[in-house]
Amino acid sequence: MTTSHLSTNAAPAVDPDLVAMIDAVFADYHRSGPSHSTGGRAVLDRALWQRLESLGLARLTGSEESDGSGAGWHEAAELLSAAARHGIRTPLGEHDLLACWLLETLGEVDDAIRTVHLSPRGGPDTPVPWGASVDRIVVVWWAGDEYRVAEVEPAALSIREGVNLIGEPRDTVGAELAATAGKPIGAALVEKLQRKSALLRGIQVCAALERAVEMSIEHVTARVQFGRPLAKFQAIQNLISDAAAEAALARAATEAALDVAVATEWDSVNLDFLIATARSCAGHAASVVSRNAHQVHGAIGTTREHRLHEFTRAALAWRSEYGSVRHWDEQVAAAATAAGPEGLWALIADSR
């Protein structure tokens, strides 16, 4: 299932042949690849990665001058969504949209598989996606008077392995980097990194929720109870419609934020509000969709053998990364309060 852009901004159409090819790659991998059970820690499949590289998908948004494919974030959103819909666990977003993008702005990028570790200024470190699995970690930290960035091999760092709710690697990384190490980068670049990280997870949450809704519709249409399909019962219809509405709202808010981000090169005056709104909507939608989807599936939806949990647990895991639901709710409330009654509509409608 291919999602369409629901915002009012003029988003560029994604080549349908590219969308079909991306979906076919992940569908084929899921059919013929290794087991995709979420039990334990997910493994970075190097064979899949090599195939993605050969098709130009591993660095889809990298510039052609740096051996990337020269695509944009709308194409990347289709790639991330397809991986999420098929339950594929791989650090495509962290590699292409975050780590390689950051290095490319500094003129340094090659074929190594990367992730990003942003050590927040004045706050505790957060787990690093795929930290112990990749070739290199791009570390960004506050050095007392400026941000600095350095590319480090995992073996040179202290890493304690961990996983998120869906089994993806989320590793605690200890980086003893001197204040003079690495290269200085501007705060504006770090802010863009934070925005891109947040929206990346929002896109993935939306795709997981849409797949859970799709599976629920398929189940209640096919399942017969008391002589008629479950879809004919009003209570079931209400559960499905609520889940579908929440997923659609999350998608609309996320598409709106993405369209403005791309159109303004991630520098819109109200982009932070749009991203916060998208993440808040997606976070709350994850609760409704997960609850309703499992309820309409009944007992079978709680088993490990059924695939539903691959998507509901993924949505619940991703909604808490690069900012919790509470964090994004507070950001939305703070922006609305600051705008006041006079400026609230302009805050919502302004896409500059």
Automatic annotation (TrEMBL):
Matching InterPro entries: AcylCo_DH-like_C (IPR036250), AcylCo_DH/oxidase_C (IPR009075), AcylCoA_DH/ox_N_sf (IPR037069), AcylCoA_DH/oxidase_NM_dom_sf (IPR009100)
Organism annotation: Mycolicibacterium helvum
Cofactor or coenzyme needed: FAD
Keyword check for Oxidoreductase: yes
Residues covered by the Acyl-CoA dehydrogenase/oxidase C-terminal domain: 199-319
Keywords: FAD, Flavoprotein, Oxidoreductase
A GO term, aspect molecular function: acyl-CoA dehydrogenase activity
Similarity field: Belongs to the acyl-CoA dehydrogenase family.
Protein name: Acyl-CoA dehydrogenase
